[in-house]
Design a protein that fits this description.
Elements lengths: L7 E5 L17 H6 L4 E5 L1 H4 L10 E5 L2 E6 L4 E2 L1 H13 L6 E4 L11 E5 L5 E5 L2 H9 L4 E4 L6 H23 L2 H10 L1 H7 L1 H12 L6 H15 L6 H12 L8 H15 L5 H15 L2 H4 L18
Parallel strand pairs: 1-2, 1-6, 3-7, 6-9
Antiparallel strand pairs: 3-4, 4-5, 7-8
Length: 315
């Protein structure tokens, strides 16, 4: 069983931590509740932080004379500058954070599909990220960032958790200041990194080869840049399948015809969106245990996050 580093996340406070939504309610998220046992959360409500009460009149994003404004219609209040100031101060002090879970469609925290109104009327013209959420995406594009609504989708949740836990591992390596720990990190994550970007994985391998005998600080700086670039986007199904097929090659002589056929059928169902990735991973994990393959046992690709977080039914 893999030992996991606890990720550190900033979360919208209304998602299971405090009844601070504009209407005085709290948002229930089964996924966030499950994750509380496996991660450290740091809740924040930007709207409350800038002085808006609980409950409060709703705010909205409006576009006026080419500018985006955060506005509270009932009070006729422009809170744009207050939100910008809080956002920059808060995010500018962040250190050692692996990800964010933010309130979906919120004018402050939303990362997608936030309504933008044309002028001061009720005409909606487009959508974008909220003021705080947009700043998070701009300042931390390499972190695991999602909203609680999108995390109801299994594939999005798989990708989010995989990224979150590899980032937590990398944070621990940076703190260790140990070349041996960096080498172990790269070795254990090699297949996972290959699924993201094979060329960058080779570049990372050359960096930790350290032919020029560089210091840890010099190495980690170069490694981090390419590592973050590699995990910026989740791997495509095709890339994951390439790694799955590479892994099954370790057992090709030991497996029966029917076992191979069953696995290939599962891979096809994953390719076609019928099965989630963890179904194929669990088949391979059973063979890793059966044939006691030490190299594959250490690969995070087969257990990227705690299995307790796998369940499909999340509301």
């Amino acid at each position: 069983m893999r030992k996991f580093v606890k990720p550190r996340l900033i979360v919208s406070k209304c998602i299971g931590f405090e009844a601070c939504r504009y209407n005085g309610l709290i948002i229930k998220s089964e996924f966030v509740e499950k994750l509380k046992d496996h991660a450290d959360f740091y809740p924040v409500c930007p709207e409350v932080e800038i002085g808006l009460g609980i409950p409060r009149d709703p705010i909205r994003i409006i576009e006026f004379e080419g500018e985006l404004i955060l506005y509270q219609p009932a009070a006729g209040l422009d809170i744009t500058e207050e939100m910008k100031k809080f956002t920059q101060n808060f995010l500018g002090k962040i250190d050692d954070i692996d990800g964010f879970i933010l309130k979906n469609r919120s004018p402050s925290c939303g990362i997608k599909a936030v309504k933008v109104y044309q002028g001061f009327g009720n005409s909606r013209t487009k959508s974008r990220a909220g003021f705080f959420g947009n700043a998070v995406l701009e300042m931390f594009p390499y972190l695991a960032v999602e909203d609680e609504g999108r995390l109801r989708n299994l594939k999005i949740r798989e990708n989010f958790l995989t990224k979150l836990y590899i980032l937590a591992d990398f944070r621990k390596v940076k703190k260790s200041r140990s070349l041996n720990e960096l080498i172990k990190f790269h070795s254990h994550n090699k297949m996972l990194l290959m699924a993201h970007n094979q060329e960058n994985t080779r570049k990372l391998g050359r960096i930790i080869g350290n032919a020029d005998k560089k210091t840890f600080d010099e190495l980690i700086s170069k490694y981090q840049k390419i590592f973050y670039d590699s995990i910026l986007d989740p791997p495509q199904n095709k890339a994951n399948i390439n790694v799955l097929m590479h892994a099954v090659g370790y057992f090709s002589k030991e497996l029966t015809h029917d076992e191979k056929a069953f696995f290939l059928d599962s891979v096809e169902k994953y390719r076609n969106g019928i099965f989630p990735l963890f179904v194929c991973l669990n088949i391979l994990k059973s063979w890793i245990i059966r044939f006691n393959n030490e190299y594959l046992t250490d690969q995070t690709f087969f257990e990227p996050y705690p299995e307790e977080l796998i369940p499909i039914t999340v509301v």
